Amino acid sequence: MPFLFDESSSPSFRSRNQNCLLLHLFCCSRPMKILVAVKRVVDYAVKIRVKPDKTGVETQNVKMSMNPFCEIALEEALRIKEAGFAKEVIAVSIGPSQCVDTLRTGLAMGADRGIHVETNSIFLPLTIAKILKSLADVENPGLIFLGKQAIDDDCNQTGQMVAALLGWPQATFASKVVLDKDKNVATVDREVDGGLETLNVDLPAVITTDLRLNQPRYASLPNIMKAKSKPIKKMTVQDLKVDIKSDIEILEVTEPPKRKSGVMVSSVDELIDKLKNEAHVV
Amino acid sequence: MQRFFSARSILGYAVKTRRRSFSSRSSSLLFDDTQLQFKESVSKFAQDNIAPHAERIDKTNSFPKDVNLWKLMGEFNLHGITAPEEYGGLGLGYLYHCIAMEEISRASGSVALSYGAHSNLCINQLVRNGTAAQKEKYLPKLISGEHVGALAMSEPNAGSDVVGMKCKAEKVDGGYILNGNKMWCTNGPSAETLVVYAKTDTKAGSKGITAFIIEKGMTGFSTAQKLDKLGMRGSDTCELVFENCFVPEENILDKEGKGVYVLMSGLDLERLVLAAGPLGIMQACLDNVLPYIRQREQFGRPVGEFQFIQGKVADMYTALQSSRSYVYSVARDCDNGKVDPKDCAGTILCAAERATQVALQAIQCLGGNGYINEYATGRLLRDAKLYEIGAGTSEIRRIVIGRELFKEE
Hints:
Keywords (chain B): FAD, Flavoprotein, Mitochondrion, Oxidoreductase, Transit peptide
Shape of chain A: globular
Number of strands of chain A: 11
CATH class of chain A: Alpha Beta
Binding site for FAD (chain B): 151-160, 184-186, 296, 307, 364-368, 393-395
Largest sheet of chain A: 9 strands, mixed
CATH topology of chain A: Rossmann fold
Order of helices and strands of chain B: HHHHHHHEEEEEEEEHEEHHHH
Low-confidence stretches of chain B: 1-24
Helix content of chain A: 25-40%
Order of helices and strands of chain A: HEEEHEHEHEHEEEEHEH
Strand content of chain B: 5-15%
Strand order of the largest sheet of chain A: 9-8-7-10-6-1-4-5-11
Radius of gyration of chain B: 21 Å
CATH superfamily of chain A: HUPs
GO molecular function, one term (chain B): ATP binding
Mean pLDDT of chain A: 89
CATH topology of the largest domain in chain B: Butyryl-CoA Dehydrogenase, subunit A, domain 3
CATH class of the largest domain in chain B: Mainly Alpha
Number of domains of chain A: 1
Number of strands of chain B: 10
Number of helices of chain A: 7
Strand content of chain A: 15-25%
Helix content of chain B: 40-55%
Transit peptide (chain B): 1-22
Structural class of chain A: alpha/beta
CATH superfamily of the largest domain in chain B: Butyryl-CoA Dehydrogenase, subunit A, domain 3
Oligomer: heterodimer
Structural class of chain B: alpha+beta
Strand order of the largest sheet of chain B: 1-4-5-8
Pathway (chain B): Amino-acid degradation; L-leucine degradation; (S)-3-hydroxy-3-methylglutaryl-CoA from 3-isovaleryl-CoA: step 1/3
């Protein structure tokens, strides 16, 4: 049981813990739901081009797919459900109308229903995290799975922010997840710079998935046909009462400078001179 | 229960050279979201599990020994696309079957031809004409991929003139005795279940044909040597030999003397589904040519910058897209119950002839390299040519269409 009442803590902290306790009991007594956030991104195999006006990357007439790390997140959620630890896997995607395609892929993989928060704005991780928090308040999942990062912005922030906003424990860069149903704990191996770290996190928790966690299944043909009848609920940011004002403004997007070919140096002195005065690394 | 096919490492994807080109973006007017998902899924499956074997299948003239492609396709629910769900099928229509056929053909022409013979010529004929008992007996194993199916109508002396077949079925107590030969039977060497047409009444012309279900191992039924073909190598084809082969009464498909209706109506749908084969080959040609012309340089520039090459590629693309539109529109009509023999013949007539030309141009775009067997283009041409011949030659298809147009008011 988590430490619930600390006399020195602020009222807001205490009430958050009370919510945690309620959720904790809630999750112990009922089979849980898993919420999986899936992002629609430019397909990993596409050659990226920057728009001429430098406001972003070209996405018109470009192949889009589910973020590969989100696929891994969804796969893990499906496996947990198939092992009997969860009763429902809900896929959620935030973005334009075409996100429905991404959700349909998720449904075809085996998710039970989808939620589409429709918007044409580009939202940065904090806004996404706020939206996911609102959804978690409504759906009360026992686990929230996200990919560790999206391959278009490589932010690696959303999962961590969702956990902080909810006051839930987080285990990021998961390469192995084992659930203990009785203790309501997830044991997660994390891939960190120093190697592998193993954490026990009390549920409900946020887990972000790394490459080696699993290999996502193909959407089987029968499941693709069945997915047609699975529901996708449409919502707006207004429905969820989320403040979408962002403190970050994207000024410009440019391609990295073209890689120059290597230069043969004639002596160590010349090498040091170049490292110091051209590359500015020493 | 998890179902995993070959390993899909994302790292592997990033490192491996691109095999798939994105010129496969067919018009979204052709397909709705579910059909696009279906196509994407079969495409992934075929590229991961079939395409890696394509070259070796062609070189060795046989399916791979280390992996059972029939079972793999069966596990992916590919065989029974048009079969009822109670037998393990998907209960879908010809549109979906064509989508699957195109994507498998894109990975390997030989595998697609064998797949088409198994899933359409055999399985679909049983679905359309079989009794409940026959479907119960034969469909489950065919749909799972445990058994391979085939169909035999042509004979050494009866190709285009298929109604002139000489294979005889003499009525005896409890069944029939079959005597004769069948030629160019796809999957013949490995099939456990075969639909075979024979003459129960040699004097009644077309009305004397009856369709039978033959099982491998029936006494008097044997297969002769595997044929050594120009293309579609690996899609085993052979001659069937019937020497006093007893076939029980219950193995008649539909009714005695009604075989020609089974045959002709089956041919319409066979032509439609097989028409997706050349579509896949044309797509494979583009998959091979586009990366090549982007990277091959002559006169200091990629050859894809030159007008002649761009012209060829444009012609290849439009040939593919227009054939695709025809095939899938007709598939939609057939799913809605409007089967027009003219259009069914038209789709394969059109797609097959274009595919041969596209494959020739693909070789030309690769220049000297196109003539080297290390590149796929030679195989694509040899595979494409079959579609102008099998399922009724182009000449027969023209007669079917022209004759009908002449007769119509």
